[in-house]
Amino acid sequence: MLKDHVVLVTGGGSGLGLGVARYCQAAGAEIAIMEVSADKAARLREEFGPGVLVVQGDVTRLADLQACHDAVLARHGRLDALIGTQGIFDGNVPLMDTAPERIDALFDEIMHVNVKGYVLSARVFHDLLRASEGAMVFTTSTAAYAADGGGVAYTASKGAIRSLVGQLAFEFAPHVRVNGVAPAGIANSQLRGPRALGLEAQRQSDIPKDAFLAMFQSLSLMQDLPTAEDHGPLYAFLASRHNKIMTGQTVVADQGLLNRPVLTRKA
Ligand SMILES: NC(=O)c1ccc[n+]([C@@H]2O[C@H](COP(=O)([O-])OP(=O)(O)OC[C@H]3O[C@@H](n4cnc5c(N)ncnc54)[C@H](O)[C@@H]3O)[C@@H](O)[C@H]2O)c1
């Protein structure tokens, strides 16, 4: 699927982005990964070796993105796909349990990573993708479609990505295709909570595996909690030149979670 493609994954240090990066490499791509955490960047260098460009950087910082752009260009001379997977969670704290004076910092923190990071990276990497007639694939969530997938800040940020995909597909057509993926649950995610609420040490992976699986199975039609790698084929297709049929769309990859029964509760 990705032979002769150069693919950059932002936020690829763990969870979804790491699984998608592994899948893309196995599907034939030359991959590059940008990740904010120094520890995760070091682990990526160990896992992938010197053949894979790992850039430690923050997608909310223009200078970091420009450095990543220049490093990709120097190493590969081109870029065929930008896959954005970075994100942070808001702890699913209800609005009325949030101190009013924390809302400003909470929104800045979540929106900067979950929305501004995607806007800035789209702006910075557009020239390379325009040259290759390439693709952008951005990550939203079922939280953009239904209540209780997060609190107000996370949900608003994921709704913003769903809209951003449409706007960028319009602005960048016909040269760059822009699509989104909205996952539901992901095994082995390290999605963290917000500093603004003192929840930065909270990780999705802290939830006991059995409890998370039971909750997922009670809501979902498909019963296997997908891994990050399971999302790989969908991202790879949307990132590839084989996608001649879609732009401006978000694929809801939710294991049937949003297809709620009207009358019958499944056992
Ligand atoms: N975990 C889930 O169940 C789930 C469900 C739906 C959607 N998502 C979305 O999937 C995406 C990946 O999340 P995950 O669950 O794999 O979590 P994760 O924390 O394992 O992966 C996200 C990665 O992004 C990195 N990152 C965070 N801020 C960054 C920044 N400013 N610059 C560069 N990198 C940064 C993190 O360090 C981390 O390595 C997120 O956008 C998340 O909202 C997750």
Descriptive notes:
With 267 residues, the protein is α/β, with parallel strands linked by helices. It has one domain (6-253): NAD(P)-binding Rossmann-like Domain (Rossmann fold), CATH 3.40.50. Helices cover 40% and strands 13% of the residues. The protein contains seven helices and seven strands, in the order βαβαβαβαβαβααβ. Strands 3-2-1-4-5-6-7 form a seven-stranded parallel sheet, with helices on both faces. α2 (38-48) links the parallel β2 and β3 (53-56). The mean pLDDT is 97. The site of nicotinamide-adenine-dinucleotide has 32 residues, from α1, β2 and α4. Nicotinamide-adenine-dinucleotide binds at residues 10-11, 13-17, 34-37, 40, 58-60, 85-88, 113, 117, 139, 141, 183-186, 189-192, 204.
How much of the polypeptide forms β-strand, as a percent range? 5-15%
- Biggest sheet statistics: 7 strands, parallel
Query: Rg, please?
Result: 18 Å
CATH class: Alpha Beta
Written as H for each helix and E for each strand, in order along the chain, the element string is EHEHEHEHEHEHHE
Query: Which superfamily, in CATH terms, is the homologous superfamily?
Result: NAD(P)-binding Rossmann-like Domain
Percent of residues in helices: 40-55%
Parts with pLDDT < 50 across at least 5 consecutive residues: none
Euclidean distance between termini CA atoms: 38 Å
How many H/I helices?
Answer: 7
Bound molecules: nicotinamide-adenine-dinucleotide
CATH topology: Rossmann fold
Helix/strand structural class: alpha/beta
How many independent structural domains?
A: 1
- By DSSP, the count of extended strands is 7
